[in-house]
Each structure stands twice: as structure tokens, then as C-alpha cells.
Amino acid sequence: MASKPILCMHCNGEMQLYTGPRYNRKVAGFLILGGLFATLFWIGAVLGIPLILIGLYMMGSKRDLWVCKDCSSAIERIKLNPETIGK
Ligand SMILES: [Zn+2]
Fold first, then answer.
1. Rg of the Cα atoms in the chain
2. In this structure, are residues 23 and 79 in contact, taking their beta carbons and an 8 Å threshold?
3. What residues have their beta carbon closer than 5 A to ion ligand 1?
4. What CA–CA distance (Å, rounded) separates 68 from 70?
5. Which residue has the higher pLDDT, 44 or 43?
6. What percent of the chain has pLDDT over 70?
7. What is the pLDDT of residue 4?
8. Minimal CA–CA distance to 57: which of 87, 14, 27?
9. pTM of the model
10. FRET pair for 43, CA 20 to 30 Å: which of 2, 29, 67, 86?
11. Are the beta carbons of 76 and 21 closer than 8 angstroms?
12. In whole angstroms, what is the distance from residue 79 CA to residue 40 CA?
């Protein structure tokens, strides 16, 4: 199954697996910086710590994409739970 290529819907080109960040790195970095800044003031820690945690989660979250070698269109690879199909 793993060696079977996926063909592009648009141009029938071969698609390649690409693993990249799920969220924008700049947004995640901004949240962490904003959280750190808020935590400098003790009242801000209530807001700052969740912001840092969200930012770290966004930094670490990855997604699998299939990208066409020819036309660069991409589809996301999603793992479906078999139990949720057909309900
Ligand atoms: Zn294509």
C-alpha cells in the first residue's frame, strides 16, 4: 500500500508525501512571545501561560500532505476512524 503512488486529480501527475507544519510558525511564535510578555506581569500569567501552551502546541503540530510533482496542488492526508464511516 505504501509503495502505490497517488495520482493527481488535476493532471494525473504523481503525488509525493510532504510533512509540514500544521500551523503558521509566525503565528505560533507570536503567541509564545505574547504569552512570555504577559507572564512578566504576574496578573498576565493567567493569560500568558495558556498562550505559551497554545503556541508550543501549534509549533509541534504537523500534518501530512500529498503534493503533486507537476502542478503543485496538494491534498491533506487524514486518518479516518473506520467506526465513524457510515454513521
Ligand atoms: Zn497535478
1. 19
2. no
3. 8, 10-11, 13, 68, 70-71
4. 5
5. 44
6. 93
7. 73
8. 27
9. 0.60
10. 29
11. no
12. 40
